[in-house]
Amino acid sequence: MPEKVIIIGSGPAGCTAAIYTARANLAPIIIEGFMAGGQPGGQLMTTGIVENYPGFPKGVDGQELMQRMRDQVAATGARQIMDDVVEVKLDRRPFAVTTAEGNTYETHALIVCTGATARRLPLESEKRLFTRGISACAVCDGGLPMFRNKELAVIGGGDSAVEEATHLTQFGSRVYLIHRRDKLRASKIMQDRALKHPKITILWNKAPVEFLGDAVLSGVRLKDTVTGELSTLMVAGCFEAIGHEPNVGFLKGQVELDEMGYIRTKPGATLTSVEGVFAGGDVQDARYRQAVSAAGSGCMAAIAAEHWLQEKGLL
Ligand code: NDP
């Protein structure tokens, strides 16, 4: 017997989809991931204190939040499988989902919540100081006490970098925008915002070569990409905003993607180009990328899947 619904991914979107589909008596399987696209639990597993997830007035540790979501999924009776999906076959019904351990599951509906992986600078010092002053999300972490009234830096030159730099001006005494070229990639309106902002200083043609600090970040060594000259910038926080990679490799072109490689969903909904396949969370959202918006779209995907199964007489 095929499953009614399988959910791939165990971040806030996948967990919420599992909770909703379980409570709708769809007996879901959630394939949580193992190695692919970071850890099971998604990007919150590498975040420090989360202060913008409703219900936690004092903030909550990212790992703890995901453990609580996972426990809530378990309490619903949903089957949790810690394995990576390596292949799906969506040109047949029911769909087939194959994992790295070699198990194949059949399912009528599929909910893809595999997230996006934040690009990170490939530096040893970055690994060591990540979450200790280095973050890949200014909206999530910028308001933490360790960054208040301190000099901060954002790395990147796209819309996210400018948006994050602007966001950080609420907390930091000065925000440096470190960009490897002499032109921003960000849209004109965002560029103007950064260029005019009294608290933002753009450092052109600069690339980080080493992050400094023992227990926590104290600064960053920069290399001028034109002259090769080295300099040191003392900052208490560095926010990487150098883009994300949606985790869609296992789909192998079977679902329509947008020009940035994210799953294309119907505006305001979670329907993909393949009937019966729904997507929630960051894998279909390059814009908001928040735990709470991911949870919201996971809920939408679950309800949409339930309605679709009902309509098709598959319940
Ligand atoms: P982008 O891919 O647009 O920009 C990434 C930036 O990081 C680029 O400036 C790039 O430099 C730089 N970069 C990449 N790799 C490195 C590296 N190894 N070292 C140093 N710098 C690096 O990603 P964004 O997240 O900014 O945006 C993604 C999409 O989301 C875009 O389409 C954007 O328009 C959209 N978005 C829209 C927003 C809005 O409308 N308010 C807000 C946020 C995002 P280089 O320019 O040299 O390639």
- Tell me the CATH superfamily of the largest domain: FAD/NAD(P)-binding domain
What fraction strand?
25-35%
Structural class: alpha/beta
CATH class of the largest domain: Alpha Beta
Number of strands: 19
End-to-end span in angstroms?
Answer: 12 Å
The helix tally amounts to 7
The percent of residues in helical segments reads 10-25%
- Provide the gyration radius in Å: 21 Å
Main sheet characteristics = 7 strands, mixed
How many structural domains in the coordinates? 2
Explain what this protein looks like in three dimensions.
This protein has helices spanning 12-23, 62-76, 124-129, 138-141, 159-168, 188-196, 291-311; strands at residues 3-8, 29-31, 49-50, 60-61, 79-81, 85-89, 95-99, 104-112, 116-118, 134-135, 151-155, 174-178, 200-203, 206-212, 219-224, 230-233, 237-240, 244-246, 277-279. The protein has 2 domains: 3-117 and 244-311, FAD/NAD(P)-binding domain; 120-240, FAD/NAD(P)-binding domain. By secondary structure, it is α/β, with parallel strands linked by helices. β15 and β16 form a beta hairpin. α1 (12-23) packs parallel to α2 and α1 packs parallel to α7. The longest helix is centred in the last third of the chain and has 21 residues, at 291-311. Strands 1, 2, 5, 6, 7, 8 and 19 form a 7-stranded mixed sheet that branches. A 5-stranded parallel sheet has the order 10-17-11-12-13. It has a 3-stranded antiparallel sheet with strand order 14-15-16. It is built from 7 helices and 19 strands. Helices cover 24% and strands 26% of the residues. 44% of the residues are buried. The structure holds NADPH dihydro-nicotinamide-adenine-dinucleotide phosphate (NDP). NADPH dihydro-nicotinamide-adenine-dinucleotide phosphate binds at residues 119, 121, 155-161, 163, 180-181, 185, 207, 241-243, 260, 286-287. NADPH dihydro-nicotinamide-adenine-dinucleotide phosphate binds next to α5.
